[in-house]
Specification:
Blueprint: E1 3-4, E2 7-9, E3 12-14, E4 21-24, E5 31-35, H1 42-58, H2 62-77, H3 80-91, H4 95-116, E6 125-126, E7 131-132, E8 139-147, E9 152-155, H5 163-175, E10 179-182, H6 188-200, E11 209-211, E12 228-232, H7 235-242, H8 245-250, E13 253-257, E14 263-266, H9 275-289, E15 301-305, H10 309-321, E16 325-326, H11 341-355, E17 358-362, E18 370-371, E19 384-388, H12 396-399, E20 406-412, H13 416-424, E21 432-435, H14 439-449, E22 456-459, E23 478-479, E24 490-491, E25 501-509, H15 510-516
Helix pairs in contact: 2-4, 2-5, 3-4, 3-6, 4-5, 9-10, 13-14
């Protein structure tokens, strides 16, 4: 019998009253849990978080909130093996992919715990330097940040139920805001267990954490002007959230992390017998297959000098052919299934659109050779590598994010200008990566294409052995991107706190301002 997931609102666990949604094991198609939010009082859930969790969190110093984050990280890490198993069961993740999600969650909590211990001992956080406002040094002004008196509503995507929950919550809690987290229903099993652990261990003040397992219902209609919404998912859903009538009327702050046609650029100085070229091939192949390509940072476009397209295609095809696909619970499996049947349908439809502009280099979009999988069970698709016929004039390649193990080679003329032009055709990305030892090429590309990206990963022979690759979202660096990517700015150390705090200008007697915020 499958598990019945409950939401955690108003300080207690509550099951929905009907209309159950099924959570499946994407490897076997078996139902592993059911959940519903029907009958849950959304307005009451928000009010409890505002009135109970908010004051208690704001009463704590940054250092005290940081201690809570550290305890949360340790509490979850103590259940690591259990959480990894749930990631495989409900998410179809290999052990390595599960670690990427679960360890990313606890690591981000630990990072913000350490950061918080260095911040102000006052309720306000200084933002910038003090400025003289006249001739007298007594009258000064400075900008400060104050925690909002609302709820941080987090609506997360299916692909990172652990990290997606923790990376948003860590920043909000440190800023002093209670969190209501709503994981994607299809993979809510992992997030629900993480919330249970934190509640069981009494890590957080009452009201600091609420959970919705299932539909958000009319949640957005009850938000107030001091609340915020942080969403990760499709651009279409992000638009619906932004255009919600109540959100517009109340002026609710909204952060979006959405679609992204990320790209990797191979510099014109690279040849196929260099170590950096090998690193490029390994990184791109990893980004295509890790979590079966279901990553917001996955590489969808591979920009390669015209003279190198054939060599890159051959090397990548060989790397992808070596990836063992099958039951993620088995040792040696490097790629599991897509999360569900709808994702599989969407990937196949996306492939059809891409094939109108590109030829196939590797893979046919079928199940391929699978290991330890029963008959036609599971939402499997083998890795696919394409090559664009005319990259500059392609439409789907630069506009359609196929959320699976799919990527397209795009030739460019070897110039920084044309590679930057191709990057821009993606209309805003979370991350682009550049592999080159040519400092002039890299400099020109960065200067020409920086405004199209949220992050630029610059790989050279000097650092290639000391980094995790472009797909690793590290809490010290900003996560977000312009345009199609949603315009959000999550993480980034202290940068992420600003979304949950009000920036205001204080003007007055210098010693008083120093006492209020430092």
């Amino acid at each position: 019998m499958s598990e019945l997931l409950k939401s955690y609102v108003g300080g207690h666990f509550q099951a929905g009253e009907g209309g159950l949604a099924a959570l499946i094991n994407p490897t076997t198609d078996e139902v592993v849990a059911q959940t519903s939010t029907t009958g849950i009082d959304m307005a009451g859930a928000l009010a409890y978080a505002r009135d109970t969790g908010g004051p208690d969190l704001r009463a704590l110093s940054f250092a005290q909130r940081a201690e809570l984050l550290g305890k949360a990280s340790k509490a979850l890490h103590a259940h690591r093996d259990e959480l990894l198993d749930l990631s495989t069961l409900n998410g179809g993740n290999t052990r390595g992919d599960a670690k990427f999600d679960v360890d990313g969650a606890t690591g981000t909590l630990a990072y913000y715990a350490k950061l918080g211990s260095t911040l102000s001992e006052t309720p306000l956080l200084a933002d910038g330097e003090t400025e003289l406002l006249g001739r007298s040094p007594r009258m000064v002004g400075r900008h400060v940040l104050a925690p909002l008196h609302g709820v941080a509503v987090h609506i997360n995507a299916f692909n990172f139920p652990a990290w997606g929950f923790a990376e948003k919550a860590a920043v909000a809690w440190l800023a002093g805001m209670p969190v209501l987290t709503k994981p994607a229903t299809s993979t809510a099993l992992l997030t629900a267990r993480m919330v249970e652990i934190l509640i069981e261990d009494q890590v957080l003040p009452s009201g600091a954490l609420s959970l919705l397992c299932g539909s958000a219902g009319d949640l957005l209609d009850h938000l107030s002007w001091q609340d915020v919404v942080a969403f990760t998912g499709s651009a279409d859903t992000g638009l619906k959230i932004r255009s919600n009538e109540n959100i517009l009327r109340q002026g609710v702050r909204v952060g979006i992390e959405a679609d992204s046609l990320n790209a990797a650029v191979l510099g014109p100085d690279m040849d196929d017998d260099s170590e950096l070229f090998d690193r490029f091939i390994q990184d791109v192949a990893k980004e295509i297959t890790q979590k079966a390509g279901q990553k917001c940072t996955a590489i969808r476009r591979i920009l390669v000098p015209e003279a190198m397209v054939a060599k890159v295609g051959e090397a990548l095809a060989a790397e992808l052919a070596a990836v063992k696909v099958g039951n993620p619970a088995e040792k040696g499996i490097k790629m599991g299934p897509l999360n569900n049947g709808q994702q599989l349908t969407d990937v196949k439809a996306g492939l059809d659109a891409l094939r109108a502009e590109a030829k196939t280099i590797h893979g046919d979009g079928g199940r391929g050779e699978l290991h330890a999988v029963d008959a036609d069970k599971g939402s499997f698709v083998s890795p696919v590598l394409l090559e664009a016929s005319d990259g500059l004039n392609a439409k789907a390649i630069h506009n359609l994010e196929v959320f699976g193990p799919v990527s397209t080679l795009v030739a460019y003329d070897g110039s920084a200008g044309q590679s930057a032009q191709l990057l821009g055709l993606g209309q805003g990305s979370l991350v682009a990566s550049v592999y080159s030892d040519d400092k002039r090429f890299t400099t020109d590309l960065v200067n020409a294409g920086a405004s199209f990206q949220g992050r630029l990963f610059l790989a050279s022979s000097k650092v290639s052995d000391h980094v995790l690759g472009p797909g690793a979202v590290l809490p010290a660096s900003m996560h977000g991107g312009p345009g199609r990517a949603g315009g959000g700015e999550e993480l980034g150390g202290r940068v992420g706190l600003k979304f949950y705090m009000q920036r205001l200008a204080l003007q007055g007697y210098a010693p008083l301002l120093e006492r209020l915020a430092h």
